[in-house]
């Protein structure tokens, strides 16, 4: 069983019993079991697609808004967020005081 003989497993169980106590050990086993089930459920489920840039730009009310696209002055690549430095080339995009 898991590459260990019965003596090794008994020693591990006795040490766990001494560390956590008889009242805490069932709670610990229960929480570990729930965590393993949660990990299995999350790995078996289909991953949710990330929202696209258009879905973020248009509000749920249906009216479309025009968002200004910021470009790096050095490499002219689009900046997806409010960066102080360009993530593509590392050029300084804005001054530190421009919050």
Automatic annotation (TrEMBL):
<comment type="similarity">
    <text>Belongs to the TatA/E family.</text>
</comment>
<keyword id="KW-0472">Membrane</keyword>
<dbReference type="InterPro" id="IPR003369">
    <property type="entry name" value="TatA/B/E"/>
</dbReference>
<keyword id="KW-1133">Transmembrane helix</keyword>
<feature type="domain" description="Zinc-ribbon">
    <location>
        <begin position="72"/>
        <end position="93"/>
    </location>
</feature>
<comment type="function">
    <text>Part of the twin-arginine translocation (Tat) system that transports large folded proteins containing a characteristic twin-arginine motif in their signal peptide across membranes. TatA could form the protein-conducting channel of the Tat system.</text>
</comment>
<dbReference type="Pfam" id="PF13240">
    <property type="entry name" value="Zn_Ribbon_1"/>
</dbReference>
<dbReference type="InterPro" id="IPR006312">
    <property type="entry name" value="TatA/E"/>
</dbReference>
<protein>
    <recommendedName>
        <fullName>Sec-independent protein translocase protein TatA</fullName>
    </recommendedName>
</protein>
<keyword id="KW-0653">Protein transport</keyword>
<dbReference type="GO" id="GO:0043953">
    <property type="term" value="P:protein transport by the Tat complex"/>
</dbReference>
<keyword id="KW-0997">Cell inner membrane</keyword>
<dbReference type="GO" id="GO:0033281">
    <property type="term" value="C:TAT protein transport complex"/>
</dbReference>
<keyword id="KW-1003">Cell membrane</keyword>
<comment type="subunit">
    <text>Forms a complex with TatC.</text>
</comment>
<dbReference type="InterPro" id="IPR026870">
    <property type="entry name" value="Zinc_ribbon_dom"/>
</dbReference>
<dbReference type="Pfam" id="PF02416">
    <property type="entry name" value="TatA_B_E"/>
</dbReference>
<keyword id="KW-0813">Transport</keyword>
<dbReference type="GO" id="GO:0008320">
    <property type="term" value="F:protein transmembrane transporter activity"/>
</dbReference>
<feature type="transmembrane region" description="Helical">
    <location>
        <begin position="6"/>
        <end position="22"/>
    </location>
</feature>
<keyword id="KW-0812">Transmembrane</keyword>
<keyword id="KW-0811">Translocation</keyword>
């Amino acid at each position: 069983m898991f590459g260990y003989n019965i003596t090794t497993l008994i020693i591990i169980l006795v040490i766990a019993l001494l560390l956590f106590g008889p009242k805490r050990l069932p709670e610990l086993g229960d929480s570990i079991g729930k965590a393993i089930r949660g990990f299995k459920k999350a790995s078996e489920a289909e991953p949710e697609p990330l929202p696209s840039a258009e879905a973020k730009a248009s509000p749920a009310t249906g009216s479309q808004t025009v968002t200004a696209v910021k470009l790096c002055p050095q490499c002219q690549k689009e900046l997806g967020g409010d960066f102080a430095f360009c993530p593509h080339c590392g050029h300084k995009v804005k001054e530190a005081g421009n919050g």
